[in-house]
């Protein structure tokens, strides 16, 4: 497993070692010991799986309590995956990083607690799986507008994205609760 630091400390791109031949491929997508030694000492408690049409944008989500770290990967299609630092005392507060994750490149993104997360699907029938470090808690869920001009995220969109009604109600970074 290769761990690649990003412009924001604590957010990491993870590249697994992939073994392929004429039969297909094999790789270890997760190993608790290796992850703890090289990335973060966390325990995952929940796995989530979504399927999206092309140009569906989900996010930017987080939980203000029961904050979730997320290990994100794609098993079909591709996404542009984004993490926004919303830890008020952080030197990178309000900054974002984004990476393409795909079934082809097999990269994963580690997004620790204290970050908002979102992605746009770059292909039809894109399947995203992610591990979470805490359970889903709807009462604590918050949403930052995907198009907040203060964040100025460079989403690779093909026209206006498809966004849920809940995500359309997202607030700007200046209006939401953030981590102290």
From TrEMBL:
<protein>
    <recommendedName>
        <fullName>dTDP-4-dehydrorhamnose 3,5-epimerase</fullName>
        <ecNumber>5.1.3.13</ecNumber>
    </recommendedName>
</protein>
<feature type="active site" description="Proton acceptor">
    <location>
        <position position="61"/>
    </location>
</feature>
<keyword id="KW-0413">Isomerase</keyword>
<feature type="site" description="Participates in a stacking interaction with the thymidine ring of dTDP-4-oxo-6-deoxyglucose">
    <location>
        <position position="136"/>
    </location>
</feature>
<comment type="function">
    <text>Catalyzes the epimerization of the C3' and C5'positions of dTDP-6-deoxy-D-xylo-4-hexulose, forming dTDP-6-deoxy-L-lyxo-4-hexulose.</text>
</comment>
<dbReference type="GO" id="GO:0000271">
    <property type="term" value="P:polysaccharide biosynthetic process"/>
</dbReference>
<feature type="active site" description="Proton donor">
    <location>
        <position position="130"/>
    </location>
</feature>
<dbReference type="InterPro" id="IPR014710">
    <property type="entry name" value="RmlC-like_jellyroll"/>
</dbReference>
<dbReference type="GO" id="GO:0019305">
    <property type="term" value="P:dTDP-rhamnose biosynthetic process"/>
</dbReference>
<comment type="pathway">
    <text>Carbohydrate biosynthesis; dTDP-L-rhamnose biosynthesis.</text>
</comment>
<dbReference type="GO" id="GO:0008830">
    <property type="term" value="F:dTDP-4-dehydrorhamnose 3,5-epimerase activity"/>
</dbReference>
<dbReference type="InterPro" id="IPR000888">
    <property type="entry name" value="RmlC-like"/>
</dbReference>
<comment type="similarity">
    <text>Belongs to the dTDP-4-dehydrorhamnose 3,5-epimerase family.</text>
</comment>
<comment type="subunit">
    <text>Homodimer.</text>
</comment>
<dbReference type="InterPro" id="IPR011051">
    <property type="entry name" value="RmlC_Cupin_sf"/>
</dbReference>
<dbReference type="Pfam" id="PF00908">
    <property type="entry name" value="dTDP_sugar_isom"/>
</dbReference>
<dbReference type="GO" id="GO:0005829">
    <property type="term" value="C:cytosol"/>
</dbReference>
């Amino acid at each position: 497993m290769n761990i690649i630091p990003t412009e924001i400390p604590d957010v990491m791109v993870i590249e697994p070692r992939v073994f392929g031949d004429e039969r297909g491929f094999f790789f270890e997508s997760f190993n608790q010991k290796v992850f703890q030694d090289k990335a973060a000492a966390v325990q995952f408690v929940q796995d989530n799986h979504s399927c999206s049409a092309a140009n569906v944008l989900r996010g930017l989500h987080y939980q203000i309590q029961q904050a979730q770290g997320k290990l994100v990967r794609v098993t079909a299609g591709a996404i542009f995956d984004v993490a926004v630092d919303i830890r008020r005392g952080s030197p990178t507060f309000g900054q974002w990083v984004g990476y393409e994750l795909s079934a082809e490149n097999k990269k994963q993104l580690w997004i620790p607690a204290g970050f908002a997360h979102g992605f746009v699907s770059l292909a039809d029938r894109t399947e995203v799986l992610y591990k979470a470090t805490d359970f889903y808690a709807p009462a604590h869920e918050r949403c930052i507008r995907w198009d907040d001009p203060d964040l100025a995220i460079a989403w690779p969109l093909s026209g206006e994205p498809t966004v849920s009604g809940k995500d359309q109600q997202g607030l700007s970074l200046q209006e939401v609760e953030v981590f102290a």
